Structures are given as structure tokens and as C-alpha cells.
Amino acid sequence: MSRTVNRVRAVRVRFTRYSVASLIATGISQLVLFGLYGWGWLGAFWASAVAFAVGAVPHFVMIRWWAWGQRGVPRLTRQVVGYLVVTVLGGLVSVLLTTAAEWLVTPLVTDRAARTLVLNVTYVLSGLPVFVAKYAFLDRVFAQDTYEATNSTKVRAAKPVAPGTTSS
Length: 168
Known about the structure:
It is elongated and about 60 Å long. Helix 1 packs antiparallel against helix 4 (112-150) and helix 3 (76-105) runs antiparallel to helix 4 (112-150). It has one domain. The chain has helices at residues 2-38, 44-67, 76-105, 112-150. By secondary structure, the protein is mostly helical.
């Protein structure tokens, strides 16, 4: 029973830390998107793509170190590849939906600030459907490595005792 309680508690802590890291990364992305698109430097596609990439880097670092407690290099390649796959798929959804929102809203809303707000809302909402799925996938990538690192299958043999002697 205690083992189950500890496992549930660990999942809650990881999910909470993952959520906080995701909120921070989303905030960073939102600032970049607001700046690049709102000031007219880039269109929706490139502004949201750059914003997504800028938020993804600190997100990976935060979830790897803080949420899943991973350190060092041994499984870094596997974790980076897993993170890139799920993040790029989620990013494509965000970028495409943000670009589609601009295409739909531009004829209706002439004020760039209002369009920027619509794009920021679209960007955030587009990330919600993949949020839990992304956590579940990343938990398999990172938690498996944590489990393997802390639960070795090596068995230590007892010290051999010479025949005819006692161990006491």
C-alpha cells in the first residue's frame, strides 16, 4: 500500500512540475509571439514557429532536471529525440492553427493589436489538447530512465563462508 501511495505522490509531483514548466515555457513563447507579430516583424507562421522554438528549449531543461530529476549525459540522446518528436508534433499543431487564425481573422480585424491577441489565444488553446498526451509520452521517456537508474537488477551475493566455520 505504501508503495502505491509513494508512486501516486511521485506522479502528482512530476505532473505539477511539468505543468509549471509548461506554463513558464508558454509565457516565454507568448512574449516572443507578441513581440514578433505584434510589432510587425514577422507574420503569424514565422512568429509562432520562432516563439515555439524559444519556449521549447527552457521547457526541456526544466522538465528534465526539475520534473523528472534527470542529470548527466547517459540517456540524453534518447530523451532529446523523444522530446523533439512529441514537441515538434505539438508545435506543428500550434503553428498551423495560429497561421490559420491569422488567415481567418485578417479580413475581419484590421487592428494589429486585436489580431495579435487572437493569435496569442489561438496559440495557447491549440496547445491544450496535446498537453496531457505529451506528459504521458514524456513520462514514459523520462520516468523509465529514472526507474532504471534507481532500481538496478543487479543482485549482490552473500559473502561466502568457509566450510566448517560459522558466520557469527
